[in-house]
Design brief:
- With about 150 residues, the protein is α/β, with parallel strands linked by helices.
- The protein has one domain: Rossmann fold (3-Layer(aba) Sandwich), CATH 3.40.50.
- It is built from four helices and seven strands; from the N terminus they run E-H-E-H-E-E-H-H-E-E-E.
- A hairpin with a 5-residue loop joins strand 3 and strand 4.
- Helix 1 packs across helix 2.
């Protein structure tokens, strides 16, 4: 299965959707979230964090750019909000490449500028059709990376 689509209209379904997404991702640890402002990216990421047993309090990294969380299995999770980043050079200066190569989970909101740093990732799209909110996901593998 290369992709899937799941209804996340009701918050009660988020936990099950997060479990399915983590299982679908397999060994992929970089998750890119593609959705308009207010679509529920951060809300769903909070559910993913709970499923991954994050021990820290989770908050949006809108102003800090990146938040680091720890799990009860000694993994880390890095949550990026790249909305305010204007160039790939800014990501380079943040040490972004080290985060994505760390083997830890990396969740990225507003990921457009990060693509040149990634060899593979799970692309997650949240959209609405006929008053139903869907989460669609697919694993993307790039053969070449250009910085």
């Amino acid at each position: 299965m290369n992709s899937f689509k799941i209804d996340i209209s009701n918050l009660k379904h988020h936990d099950d959707a997060a479990a399915q997404l983590i299982e679908f991702a397999g060994a992929e640890r970089v998750f890119l979230f593609d959705a308009p402002m207010g679509a529920g990216k951060t809300t769903f990421i909070k559910t993913l964090c709970r499923r991954l047993h994050i021990t820290d309090t989770m908050s949006s990294p809108t102003y800090s750019i990146v938040n680091e969380y720890h799990t009860n299995s000694n993994l880390k999770l890095f949550h990026f909000d790249l909305y305010r980043i204007k160039t790939a050079e800014e990501l380079y200066e943040l040490g972004f490449e080290e985060y994505v190569l760390s083997g830890n989970y990396v969740f990225i909101e507003w990921p457009e500028l990060s693509l040149s740093f990634l060899s593979s990732y799970l692309r997650i799209i949240i959209n609405s059709e006929n008053n139903i909110r869907y989460l669609c996901a697919e694993i993307i593998t790039n053969n070449e990376i250009t910085n």
